[in-house]
């Protein structure tokens, strides 16, 4: 899949094998947190639509993205129900918050940073779906592979909008967040989540 190779280059580091091992052994938590991630992704897209009402390209892409993420949310809930996994509250991974703490406060820097972070979150999700699939049962593997196309497009939408609205090269800013994202993915984490780092236990 061409976009997957592009995503690997964009991310700059792969998910550690120890995270994969933990994901396979904690599939209940994996699915519960995955559901939370899909819901949060839809919420982020809606927030952008309400904040930036004067940007038609953003409105169109985020509207479609929000719908797709909510469909994914429903699909994860359906999978969980079939496996007798109860959906409930989980504490958030430090991943998204760790990236968002670097968002600039003035515009257009704020928008550009949020879009770049969105690209990283979608790209990392895509990379993890692809890397996890070979180790999962056929039903879950098929579902995760089915998400690759849409998640890959979401990454491209976020990055394309960031470049479009910046009005200037943003390669340095992308590299800044690549470093921060890699640090979060490769650092030790005390609890397992869909976007957590390497298990510390």
TrEMBL record:
The record ties this protein, via Pfam families, to: MiaE
This entry's Gene Ontology molecular function terms read: tRNA 2-(methylsulfanyl)-N(6)-isopentenyladenosine(37) hydroxylase activity
Q: Which GO terms describe its biological process?
A: tRNA modification
Q: Which CDD domains match?
A: MiaE
| InterPro entries attached to this UniProt entry | Ferritin-like, Ferritin-like_SF, tRNA-Hydrxlase_MiaE
Entries under SUPFAM superfamilies matching the protein: Ferritin-like
Q: Please identify the protein, giving its name as recorded.
A: tRNA-(Ms[2]io[6]A)-hydroxylase
What is the organism of origin for this protein? Pontibacterium sinense
